[in-house]
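WARN no homologs supplied; continuing
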Amino acid sequence: MLALLVASAAVAGTAGVAAQDDGGPPAPPAAYYGDLTLDGDPAPAGVEVTAYIDGEERGSYLTAEEGSYGSSSALEESLTVRGEPGEEGATVEFTVNGQPVDATVEWESGAVENVDLAASASGDPPGDGGDGSDGSDGSDGSDGSDGSDGSDGAAPGGSDGSDGSDGGSTGGTQAAGSGPSPSGSTAQTVDGTVESVDSGEWAVSVSADSVDADATVEADLGDALATDAASVEGVDVTVDEDVAEFGLSVRQLGSGEAADRVGELGGATPVSYLEFEPDGFESASVAESEFSFTVDESALPDGASPEHVSLYRFDDGWNPVPTAYNGDGEYVATAEGFSVFAVGAAESGVGVAAASLESDTIAPGELAAVSATVENTGDAEGTAAVTLRVDGETVDEREVTVGPDESREVTFTPRFDETGDYSIAVGDETAGDLTVESTESSSAEGDESEESDESGAETADAGGSGDGVAAEAFGIDPLAIGGVLALALVVGGALALRRR
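OK structure emitted
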């Protein structure tokens, strides 16, 4: 008997594994939490941590506290990472604001593990080495001494500061403030002169003299272009040819003017529009422009998160440019060339597309299974509260995140203790009517019917309708009386013979 039980358990376990491999219920996800640092300092709230298995995103988490992500408590949210059949032991890799980190972990279904993550702040230029000191003035005809090497940049990828230029009859040719470019090359940078324009349509002008090819003009715009919704605070422009007189005009555009000029931003909700116009060089001469801007989260449309924000450039149509979110509403974007730009939040369209009941009849105390398809018809990942409603009242709610042009299946399992009929819906989609009825009452009705049938049969046998014989007074069957009389005659005859 024991051997039979062991064998049965083994078969059941094998069947469970087979069901998982054959597309059965998904395995519980793993959950991760831990300390989170950017460049050695506690990461600010609003940083996105994303997990990947074999290059595929399996979960993401937006931090709400400084210096950490997730929690070891089952009652609090963590970075949950889903797996697929056969992925036990697969390597989980992480990014922080899109920047890879060294830490990895092996995926185990249902595991809750501490994984500390240390990352570099995305979008920040590598630390510049200090400028080499200029050689002494060459007016005396002698070469000045070489400037000393700048110190190494602090961030990964930072380059050594360039050597100070040799002194000579003319000294260095680049403007003060020259140093390594953000890309880490030995090309120099030039501090652009930023001026607010008091008249005319342009708000800010940036200028610089004698900009060499591959040099970068850096401009701190401050709050000259700030609005309640967004502020472009800086722009760095790298040119791929010599520019004798560098000029760049910048201004805010109203949504109406932008729509008249180039058309409204599509696929995203605009937060602000700007126009950049080069002077002294062509837009095609721009190797790369880097924009630093901030967005007030209160200006974002409902359902949009800070990660949905991008910078868009109009170039034969609106196109998003690479945009990195650094937390606290700060962004860095890169583009080639100038034109009309828009800061926008991609729209997500998360909603319930369909709902259904697994069974429309259950017994009191049983769980009903209500399934819903939640889809995202928008251009950005979105999260929505999906509600289960019974007779118009919300009884359960679940946060569901869906990627763009994707869908997810969600199942609610409410318990019903009272008999009756209930109208079930998920969101605005009707799942159907559910009947909760007692199995005991159904059984009792069946028993009563059976007893009634048996009673009817007995009545028919006893003298009801049909071929049965009618009953006499007191319910005594005449055949029974005849039998008794016959028996009496036989007994009486036997006694008489004995007396003779």
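The mean pLDDT is 75.
OK
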